[in-house]
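Hi L., both proteins are below.
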Amino acid sequence: AATGPAPHLKRTGGAATVKAMLLEWCRARTRGYEHVDVQNFSGSWGSGLAFCALLHSFFPDAFDYGSLEPSARRHNLALAFATAEERAGCAPLLEVDDMVRLPVPDAKCVYTYLQELYRCLVAKGLVKTKKR
């Protein structure tokens, strides 16, 4: 897995700015996906579809997004985390059981996972960052 701060998300302005940039990146990558409306790092990710949409935007051949159901949380989360690990080399920092057990995902855990996913995608050259 990639290490260090996420390139291009590291800007002056502190953690709030990085969070806002990461949230906007997730929102932009998942725009247009059915049943996905990324507004935060907690409830927006509960069904697993936002994770699936984000990964599908990079790996459209990995699975058929159109066949996914919002109510199949366990399946969606398992699919997303497996795809992230296999295709992006992203460490499995979130557990499907933990995510399903909570009515609303923990924002800090989701944020940490998305930072790691972003770093892995940058390391694979799938996300272009601006040179300083």
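That was the first. Here is the second:
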Amino acid sequence: MNHPDPKAARAADRARVVVIDAKIHQLEQRIHALQTELESCQERLDTYKYPVLTLPNEIVSEIFMHFLPPYPTCPRLAGLGLPTSLTHICREWREIALATPKLWQAFCTVYTANKAEQTRVMETWLDRSGSCPLSIQM
């Protein structure tokens, strides 16, 4: 039976450690280069301003008004066409939608077993509608 020479095995392992360490160093350098490139790309993206976000809030608010059915028609109860849909696009649109009372002046409500939730939703819409005339469909 042949037994490997322990001295030769240790020497081979030491040589292999040097090779592996060199490969790890090369990969770390490549990772660093990619991270630097990623940061550079992200910085350029962060400075980009989408054209729609350069519009004055008043114009965006007016566009939002055309997203809904004309007052006093109430928007559908679910899905697209609700002012809440506009609040899910981005932070800027959320702020504009929440600051536009006319978006919240018409709403439909249906009977639900959860009266507390129904009341909370109605109070939220009423608060957001400000002093606008209301159209409530039950």
